[in-house]
Amino acid sequence: MAGKFVVSRSKDGQHYFVLKASNGQAVLQSERYKSPKSCANGIESVRKNSQEEGRFECRTAKDGRTYFVLKAANGQEVGRSQMYKSDSGCRNGMKSVATNAPGAAVTEG
Prior knowledge:
Distance between the termini: 17 Å
CATH architecture: Roll
Helix content: 25-40%
Number of helices: 2
CATH class: Mainly Beta
Radius of gyration: 13 Å
Number of strands: 7
Strand content: 25-35%
Number of domains: 1
């Protein structure tokens, strides 16, 4: 099973997506978008930017856990990961996005 983007609607009617790895684990979630077209553009941005060096940034939360963000060329955040207990988990999550995003199918959630 390949990775997939699952597009859903939030309670306030906005659209967002989650990139799931081939094992079904959520590895990246987007911001919320007002229109389906903007959400689709966000998916394409993840596909493109996940292949560009330097677009991932590992960060540390206040509780000491790590997470990463994926940024577009203009510096805008296009997705954020779950929390990880270790730096190696964070790095593996970034690799998973880079591996799964380019060929991931898009489904409705």
